Queue: 2 jobs
Job 1
Amino acid sequence: MKFKSFLKNTFVSHALDKKLEKIEKPVGSLGYDPWGFNKDTNKIVFSLFSSVYEKYFRVQTHGIENVPDSGPVLIIANHSGQLPIDGTLIGYAIANREKAPRQTRAMIERFFPTVPYIGNILNQLGAVLGDPINCAKILDRGEAVIVFPEGIRGSGKLYKDRYKLQRFGSGFVRLAMAHGTPIVPVGVVGCEETIPAIANVKPLARLLGVPYIPLAVPFIFPAKVHLTFGKPIFFDDEELTEEQVTRRVEKVKRAINTLIAKGLDEREAIFE
Amino acid sequence: MSLTTVATTTKTVNKPNNRKSAASRKTKNRQALSADKKQTVLVTGCAGALAQQVINRLRDKYNIVAVDFREQSYLSEEIPCYKLDFNKRVFEDLFKQYKFDSVIHLGRIQSSEETKIRRYNSNVLGTQKLLDLSHKYGIKHVLILSTYHVYGADAYNPALIDENAPLKAAELTHDLVDSVELENLANIYLWKYPDLNITILRPCNIVGPGIQNSISRLLASSYAPSLLGFSPIMQFIHIDDMADAIMLAHTTNHPGVYNVAPEDWVALQDAIDVSGCRRIPVPSIPPILPRTLATIAGLKMFPSYLINYFKYPVVIDGSLFAETFHYKAKRPLKEIFRFYKEQKN
C-alpha cells in the first residue's frame, strides 16, 4: 500500500487524478470493486501508459464516438499480438477520449488468474476472467465490456495468419441479446506486428500450463496501431437456435473484417 | 435418563455450566419459563465469540439455552449453558425439558481444529441429530451458520457468486468436505421438512474482537505469510454486523440459503498491510510448494487446506440477503482493520 501511494504521488499528476476521478466507476471504501479493479493502480498505469499509447504505438482512433456515453455495451474486437496489448489500447482509448470517457472491462483468457503477479495486475486494471457470469453481472451494472471472441485462437496465432479472423465464440451475442446490449465492433490493425510469431512451442506450453509459447523475437515492435470503431449493432432478444445465433455472430465478424480492411487501407506503413 | 441425572453422573458430558447445582438450575429455569411467555431459543456454539454476541442481542426478548460441544462456558445466571455432544442421547433431553421454539446453530468445528473424523461427527452427524430432534419436537425455525468456503477457491470462479452456484470446496480440498456435507444435509432437510423453516447463512470472512478463525488470526499476527504474486479479492464482515445479520434472519422468517457479505471488497495483501502486519513472502509456484510449507509450519492462520483461498478470489453476492432482510453492514473495512492494527501497538 505504501509503495502504491509512493507510485501514485510520483507519477499521477493532480490534473490526471482529477480527470480519472470524473469517470464513474463504483468501488468500495478501499478502492476495489468485486472483480479486483483498483482505482489507484489504474491511475498509475494510465499515467505510465500514456507515452506507450501516444509515442510508442502512436495509436490512431476512428469512430470512437460510436461507443455509447453510458449504459452497458459490448465492444467486440479482433485479437492478436500474443500479449493483451490490443485490449489495453482499446481500454485506454475509451478512458482517454474527450467526450464521455469510460472505464472499460476487458475479458481475459482463463489461464491469467493462475499466473503470479500478472493475473492480479490485470484485475487491478479492470480486466476480468472471461466468464459469461462475470460478463452478465458487469453488463447488469451498466459497464462497458471488451470481448475478444476469438480468445487464444486469435492472440496466439502466427504471423502468417495475420488479419485472418479465427473462429468466434457465440457467447457474446447471447449476452447482448439477453441484456439488450449494443455491440460495438472494433477493427484492430497494428498489434499483429508487435510480436510476430513464426511458431508455437506446444510441448513447452503444455509443460508450463499456458495455452501457447510463441517462437518470436523477445521484443515488442513499435508498430503503429489503428483502432476503428464501427456503428453499434443491436440484436433483438428472441428464442433462437444455435445456427441462427451463429448467423448473428457472422454478421459481427463481417463488420470487424470491414473495419480491419479500413484500418489496413489507412495504414501507409507498419512502422510509419 | 434425565438431564439432571446425566449432569450429576458424568463429568464431561452435559454438565450445566455454573456454580449452582443442576437440579436447582432446572427448577429455576422451569419457573422462569412458566412465568413469562418469551420464546425459547437453543443456541449452539456458545463458547464462540459470535454466539455470545448473538446471545447478548437475544437475551432481553428470549429465553436462551446455550450449548457447546467444545468447552464449558459461563454466560449468566439466567442462561443455562451445557457442554455436550449432539450425538449423545442426552442431547434430546434438552428438547424435552425446554420446549424450544427455534434453534440457532452456530456450533461448527472449524477445519483448522480437530481431526477430519471428529469434525465430520460433530459438524455433519451432530447437525443431522439436531435437525432430526428439531423436526421431532416441532421447532418452527432453524438457522444454520455455514461459510463461503463451501464455494471453493478456484482460479475460474466468477465474482459475485450467488447462492445457486455449485459447492466446489469438497472437490478442491478434503478438509472442507464436512462443511459442504453440512450444507447438503441442511438443504435436504430444508426441502424435506418445510415446517422447520431452515435458513442457511453463508457469510464471508467473519472478523473482529474474539474471532479465532484462520483469517482473523492472520490479521492479528505481527507477521503474516503472504503468497508471492497472489492477492485475491476478499470480503470481511465485522462480528457485530454478523450478529446483527443472524438476529435479522432469526426474527424474520424467510427460509432459504443466503450469502452474507457487505458491499465492500479489498485485496488480501492490502488487508494485511492496513492491519499493520508485516508480510512474510511465501513462494507460490509450483503449487505444491506453498502447500508443503504450510503443512510443515502447521500455522492455524495459514493452513495448507486454505492455500487456494489465499490465491484465488471467492467473492460472494450478498444482495439477496440484503434485499430480503433489509440488511446493511454498518462497520466499514477501515474500522475492522484498525482493530487489528491497534492490537499490535
Job 2
Amino acid sequence: MPRPLRRAMGRLGLWLLVAVIVVYTVFPFYWAIVSSLKGGQALFGTELLPRDPQWSNYAELFRQQPFGRNILNSVFVAGSVVLVSLVLASGAAYALGRIRFRGRVPLLMVILSVSMFPQVAVLSGMFELIRWLGLYNNLLGLTLSYLIFTLPFTVWVLTTFMRELPQELEEAAMVDGATPFVTITRVFLPLMAPAMATAGLLAFIAAWNEFLFALTFTLTNEMRTVPVAIALISGASAFELPWGRIMAASVIVTVPLILLVLVFQRRIVEGLTAGAVKG
Amino acid sequence: MSAAAQAAPVAAPRARNAISGMQRRRRRTAWLFLSPMLLVLALVAGWPLLRTVYFAFTDATLFDIAFHELVGAQNFAFLASDPDWWAAVRNTLIFATASVAIETLLGLVIALTLNARLRGRGPLRAAMLIPWAIPTVVSAQMWGWMLHDQYGVINAVLLSLGVIATPWAWVADPSLALWSVVAVDVWKTTPFMALLILAALQLVPRDVYEAARIDGLGPVGIFVRITLPLIRPALMVAVLFRALDALRVFDLMYVLTGNSPSTASMSVYARQQLVDFQDVGMGSAAATFLALVVAASAALIIVAGRVRFDTAGR
C-alpha cells in the first residue's frame, strides 16, 4: 500500500474509533432526553427523534411528587457541605502543605484512607450518632454525614495545590510580621481561589450524587434528596414504572451537572488528576 | 528560613535558637490549624466506625439501638452460615474484578486514541466527562430503561440486527443481571479511567517516542517497552482507587435490581440487614467484614503494584 494511502487509512481508523467513543459515552444520555419528551405510546417506540415532543412527563413529575422540594434539598445539602468542607480544609491544607512536622505523612495517609473507606462500614455508627443528635430525617444530618467523603477529598486537593505555591510568598508575609492566620487569609486564600473552586465543584458533585446515606437517614418524601427521589419514583403498580417521568427527572438533575462540567472541564480534570494521581 | 541559615556562621547559637523556636511555633500553628478538621473527621468517621465494629458483637436492633447485649462472635457465625452472604461476597468480588479489568483496558484504548494529535480534543474530553458527572442513580435508571426487556432500545437494536432471536431479560435474568450491572459501571467509570491515564500519557515527553522510533521499535514495542513502564505508577494508583470504589458498590445494584440476591453486593446485603431487617448486629458484622476485605485488597494492590503516593513532599 502506498504511504499516503496508508496514512489516510490510519487517520480514518482513528476518527472512526473517536466516533465510536463519542456515541458510546453520549448516546445513553441522549436517549434519556428523547424518552423524556415522548408521551403516551410513543415512549415504547424507538424513533431517534420524538415525532411529537411533549412536556407532559415533566409537568407530571412535579405534580405527582414534591420534586421541586427535592431539588432544593439537594442544593441545600450539597451547598452547605461544600462550604463547611472548604472552611475546615483550607486551614488544614495550609498546615499539611506548608509546614513540616512529625506525623504529617501518616496523617495524609489516614485522610486518604478515610476517603477510600466503604460508606456502609460507618452506617450503623452514623445512624446512632444522627439519632442521638436528633438529626434523623433532617437535612443537617445529611450535611454532617457527607463530611466523611467531602472533607478528606478537599483537604487532599487543596494540600496538593498549596504545596505548589512559592515559598517566597510566605517568607515575605512573615518578614512583615503577619500571623499565620493573616498569612492564610490575605496571602494564600486569594491565590487558592482557583483550587478552592475546583475542590468545591468536585465535592458539590459528589454530594449531589450521594445515595446510600440519603436513602438511609431520611424518611419522608419532603426530606428526600434528588437521587433518592429518582430511585423511588414508582407508578400505579410495581410492574408499571413510569419511565417517561423517571427519564424527565434524570434529565433535570443531570443538565446542571453537565453544564458545570462543560464550563469547568479543564479545572475538573486538573482537580481529579491532582486528587487521585500525581504523575 | 534561608536568611537565618545564611547568618549562621556569624552568630551560630543564637540563630539556631531562633530557628528552633520558630520551628516549634510553626509546628504548634500546624496542629492548631489541623485540629478543627481532625475533630470533625474523628466525629463523622472515627467514632461511627468504632461503634459499627462494636455493634458487630452485639444483638442491637434498629428499634432501640441503645438496648443491647454483647453476644460475642455470634453475628459472624450467622453470617458464615448464610448462603445469601456468600453470594454477596462472590458478586462483589466478580463485579470488582471484572469492571476494573475492563475499565482499565478500555480506558487505555480511549486514552491512547485521545493522545494522538487530534483536532477537537477539548470537546471530546468534555463528552467523556458526561458519564462521570451523571449521578450513579440516574445512570442506573437510564440503563434500566435501555435494557428493559420489552421496550428497551438495546433489545430493539439487537433484534433488528439479528444478533438475538428473542428479547433478553438483561436485568431480570439472574445469570445476566450481574453482567448488566458490570456493563453500566464500565460505561460510567471508563471515561474517568481514560482521563487519568491520558493525564499520565501527556507527561511522557515526545522525544522519548522519537528516540524509540529511530531505534526501530514498532508501535507495539513502543507501547510495551516505553509507554507502559512510564505510565505504570499512575495506572496502578488509578486501579487502586477504582478497585476500592468497586468493592463498596451499592447504588447500581440497589437501583437496577433492588435487593435481589443474584446481584446484591456486600454493601447491599449489609444495608438490608441493618435497615430492612432492623438487625444492627448482623448489618454491622457484614459491614465490618467488608471493611476488612477493602483494607486487605488495598494492601494487596499497594504491595503487588508497588504503588507510591506522592505524600513525602518535595
